[in-house]
Design a protein that fits this description.
Layout: E1 3-7, H1 14-22, E2 27-31, H2 34-39, E3 42-45, H3 51-60, H4 63-72, E4 77-80, H5 82-85, E5 88-93, E6 96-99, E7 104-110, E8 118-123, E9 140-145, E10 147-148, E11 156-162, E12 164-172, E13 175-178, H6 186-197
Parallel strand pairs: 1-2, 1-3, 3-4, 4-13, 5-7
Antiparallel strand pairs: 5-6, 7-10, 8-9, 11-12, 12-13
């Protein structure tokens, strides 16, 4: 049975993610322990709220070192919502720029749309060759966010449109991330999580 660690750094809907991942058949642990998270088959980095606040929580549990150590060893990591955003170099909120983990190039900035936050169900355009979206090409997923990345160089980028086109998910080697919440996306989200767990 595949083991999945959900990083507990004080942010994110941990229990919802835990239940959704457990339904895939994985053995799921919510933990802030570095060694446990490092050794799990898969690591999930959740995130809700502000970029800077999430980064403070991640730093407090050595989360950045953990993510980088796992990726250097090609051990799978899945970022969700702000857990995706912090993978980028910087995030800009309310005019303040914060440093991210720098795993992905670029910056996360406010969506240019008539209605922000982008809240609710939206379709995505999966990248060709996507593993996450195998069999889910016409599905809708649940988003709650005001900020997003745009172009993602050197990665498979699945996109969506809300006012402008943005990165709804990225895949690169052992790294996967979604701007939407798969744990809140019904059968489509369950299918995506099952696809990810199947890669572990």
């Amino acid at each position: 049975m595949n083991t999945v660690a959900i990083l507990d750094y004080g942010s994110g809907n941990l229990r919802s993610a835990e239940r959704a991942l457990a339904r895939t058949g994985a053995n799921v642990t919510v933990t802030a322990d570095y060694a446990t998270a490092l050794e799990a088959d898969g690591l999930v980095v959740p995130g809700v709220g502000a970029f800077a606040a999430c980064m403070r929580g991640i730093d407090a549990v050595r989360g950045g070192t953990l993510v980088w150590d796992r990726l250097r060893k090609q051990r799978p990591v899945l970022g969700i919502c702000v857990g995706m955003q912090v993978l980028f170099e910087t995030g800009v909120e309310h005019g303040e720029q914060s440093s991210g983990l720098g795993v992905l190039p670029g910056s996360v900035t406010r969506l240019s749309a008539d209605i922000v936050p982008h809240m609710g169900w939206n379709t995505v355009e999966p990248a060709a060759g996507s593993t996450l979206f195998a069999g889910l090409e016409s599905e809708r997923f649940y988003f709650v966010h005001s900020y997003a990345a745009r172009e993602v160089d050197g990665a498979l980028a699945t996109t969506a449109v809300h006012g402008e086109r943005f990165a709804a998910a990225v895949e690169r080697d052992a790294l996967s991330a979604t701007q939407f919440h798969p744990e809140k996306s019904g059968d489509a989200g369950a299918g995506l999580l099952a696809n990810w767990v199947a890669t572990l």
